[in-house]
Design brief:
This protein is of the alpha/beta class. The chain is about 30% helix and about 20% strand. Strand 5, helix 3 and strand 6 form a beta-alpha-beta unit. Helix 1 packs across helix 11 and helix 9 packs parallel to helix 10. About 45% of the residues are buried.
């Protein structure tokens, strides 16, 4: 046809498997990045999360079920990357800290069994990412972190980790650990650098066996931009939400230091928006329920009831009056970096659980653009 000529080789975007996918937020972060990565297979065992994934990513092949039930025949092609946001309850600082030997977090080994199988077939991904809570660094007195890193090194990967807080991109305090294993070279710093190599990560790395430290890489990632959102920017209008009839019943639970924050906000006369959780604290040897509130423009880390925390509250102080309500599922989705057209479960509790177990989209995008995509530069195929 006139006007059409050879356009050169066609770019093929790298591909990924997404395990413990939940609602697919990791895959979103991978795909929306510049020179992004496309998910070609996803898995989760939770029925509600599976429904959310399919509703929002109908084009991605999805298998619901325990990762231990998957076989190599279920996994298509050869992925460039495998992402695993394995269950964190047993290594969370808010949980029982059973470690990776416990049932749920032990699912990592079901995932790793598949990686070993792919290696045997010559289909191993060049990059593996494990996302988890920062408690992984110390659970099992550091043995869990060492076991994960050792498994990756034994498979021929260079391994490193980054601690990334969603607060750099979103109005939510949400530190998470990203263990990144790469076959070959990647952007690397000569030593730990702030803000992604925290003192606790540096300490955990120093406790690793020598063979793991010999294969360790301090992956280099550009510093985050200045966050341009605060909590108030993602909240629904006051008139569109339901407020508690008796806010004082909740505010009365505030510990003295937190009560002082509330009183200071009320005394200012200005509108101030805070976020709060109820916590169980030990005072004089007795368990006491306390409200802990912050007015720094950040929400507390979104959690699920199974993670040891209750639903988050929004506290608004304006012209000497305090009002309290619960955070909505849609607001939680915004705090994870999702657009409003993302389809949430109809149940508020299900939506909050989905978001509380997820990974923040802008964090995955930053990791992809700064580290993963440079390693997996797009392949090219003949046109």
């Amino acid at each position: 046809m006139p006007g059409l000529g050879y356009a050169g080789p066609m770019t093929i975007r790298p591909t990924a498997y997404e395990f413990f996918a939940g609602g697919g937020l990791a895959g979103l972060g991978l795909s929306v990045a510049a020179a992004g990565i496309d998910t070609v297979f996803a898995n989760d065992m939770d029925p509600a999360k599976a429904r959310a994934f399919v509703a929002n990513h109908s084009q991605v092949p999805f298998r619901q079920g325990d990762v231990w039930s998957l076989t190599l025949e279920d996994l298509p092609g050869r992925p460039d990357l495998a992402w695993a946001s394995s269950p964190c309850q047993d290594v969370s600082l808010a949980g029982a800290r059973g470690g990776l030997e416990a049932g749920r977090s032990g699912a990592f080994w079901g995932f790793w069994r598949l990686m070993q199988g792919l290696e045997g077939q010559g289909r191993a991904p060049r990059v593996v990412v494990l996302e988890n809570v920062i408690g992984l660094l110390t659970s099992g007195q550091g043995r869990d972190f060492a076991a994960v890193c050792a498994a990756m090194v034994q498979a021929g990967y260079r391994v490193g980790a980054l601690e990334m807080d969603a607060a750099f991109w979103l109005p939510q305090s949400r530190p998470r650990l990203f263990v990144v294993a790469i076959k070959g070279e990647g952007p690397e710093a000569p030593g730990p650098t702030a803000p992604f190599h925290s003192p606790r990560l540096v300490a955990a790395q120093a406790r690793l066996p020598q063979a793991v430290r010999d294969a360790w890489a301090w992956w280099s990632l550009p510093g985050p931009p200045k966050r341009n959102l605060d909590l108030a920017a993602v909240l629904e209008p006051d008139e569109a939400v339901d407020w508690l009839d008796d806010p004082q019943a909740i505010l009365a639970l505030a510990a003295p230091a937190h009560r002082a924050r509330i009183d200071q906000a009320l005394a200012s006369g200005r509108r101030q928006v805070g976020a709060a959780y109820r916590r169980v604290r030990i005072e004089d040897g007795v368990k006491v329920q306390r409200l802990e509130v912050r007015f720094d423009g950040l929400a507390g880390c979104l959690r699920t009831p199974a993670g040891g925390s209750s639903r988050q509250y929004v506290v608004v102080c304006d012209h000497g009056r305090a009002r309290v309500r619960r955070l909505t599922g849609r607001e939680a989705a915004r705090l994870m970096g999702l657009p409003d057209d993302y389809r949430l479960p109809a149940s508020e509790s299900a939506a909050l659980k989905l978001m509380g177990d997820a990974v923040a989209v802008p964090v995955v995008r930053a990791l992809t653009e700064g580290l993963l995509s440079p390693v997996l530069s797009p392949r090219r195929a003949a046109a």
